[in-house]
Amino acid sequence: MSNSIRALRFANGEMTQAELVKRLGVTRQTVIAIEQGKYSPSLEMAFRIARVFRVPLDDVFQYAGDESA
Q: 29, 21 in Cβ contact below 8 A?
C-alpha cells in the first residue's frame, strides 16, 4: 500500500510531521512509518488521516493490487 501523505502535507500549507502528529494524537515515529509505507494504519487511523486533509480515503492511500478498480 502506498500513500500521498507527504504530498498532502505540503499541499496543505507545508504542514510539518509534528503538526500532523498533534492533530492525529499519535507519535512522530508512527507518522514517519506510515508515510514511508513501513506501517499500514488501522482503518480508523486511515480515515482520521483523510479527515485531517479533507479528502477521500483513496486520495490518501492506494493499494497496488487495485489495478482493476
A: no
